């Protein structure tokens, strides 16, 4: 019986084992397939969201992508159409390479790269043809030495010229193309007989590629660097205005309102001034590309794009004060809200007037008109005067004499406590040293260990107390953090004058239309600025 039961159980267990292993493998494969399909769905959804976000932020990106695809299709015809391929041969690949590296997002960037590439190719081809013409008059060994020496000298001189600030800023890409083309033609001419045909084919192919890029950039939905620089200046002014308004409102709001805000969203204060702080390189690049662009608007004269760079520099200095103002919201030591409430009304009115002035500046630049004579209204001066009066009416908040006496007394008590503890310690040691027998020695040792433990515990308790008293002594006024906030707010008003001056200078040089609140479509009434002013604002290569 026992044997049969055992055999039956063994048989049943073996059967379950044979059927269970494939079932486990099958379940594992199903789980892996489900995980893989889930990852693919998440990846597809994330990819689609990124594509949609990029196009929604700037629809011009979609237009530029189609323009690049159309240009590549057009230059590919040099390979696909038999008569064109017979004319250009393998040199047609240079047209494709030109489209890939020259066609940029804005017309100014495309012009800069296209003209640099064309100029570099022409100079390199001419010089390489001259070197080959001289080298062919010599023997084979002398020809090789002459070509090597020419490559060394031209390469060294051209590379050294790239370190010149003006060359590096405006023609660095052209120098690189010059080096590439010159070395390819000069070195290959030693083994190839008809160098002139190589120069012609490559020059024509590059010319076709540049022509297609310029046509697409300038005539088919053009994107101007100057307009981007203009709009970015408007956006920076609006961002600073929103940051100041949000910062002051948050400083005087209740903490419950702040806690109810969505923590996952980006800080609107930081979002407003972030673009201003990161704008230096972007402004300089856009100004450089804008200087290459032709006149493309109804305005009579070229805009001084370098003046936009100066406005951006002033806005960055203005933004640093806004950053410091934002830092007052995140300090460890804060003024009680009951004290803040006494100065809430003048501070909010002052911030509102600054915000209004910045928004008006942005609106004037957007419409290309001069600033209003009353951009700094009387309400701004009234708010400043009210804030000054409110601070002067509360002298005890900013002097804090009673609190100073209190903290001084606390420090004196702490010092007396520490001196008394030291005296007791010395007295205990002197009493213990009188006893000389063994029992007294053990008792003294036991008391010494106890005193050391008590000393350590009291030191731990006394140290944070003394640190707190020291910090409190520095906080001689509970309104001191607010004083820093108010001083930064007044500093913003002072720096607003510099921003207005630069914007007015921009309007004068750019011939903005005169301000008229009743008519937004007034024709340009100012005269052309003097020639020396324009020359100082524009690079010499602008056309």
TrEMBL record:
Q: For this chain's UniProt record, which GO biological process terms are given?
A: malate transport; monoatomic ion transmembrane transport
- Family assignment from sequence similarity: Belongs to the aromatic acid exporter (TC 2.A.85) family.
Q: Name one GO cellular component term.
A: membrane
Membrane-traversing stretches: 62-81, 93-111, 141-161, 173-191, 203-224
- Name the source organism: Gossypium harknessii
* Identification of the protein by name: Aluminum-activated malate transporter 12-like
* Keywords attached to this entry: Ion channel, Ion transport, Membrane, Transmembrane, Transmembrane helix, Transport
| Keyword Repeat found | no
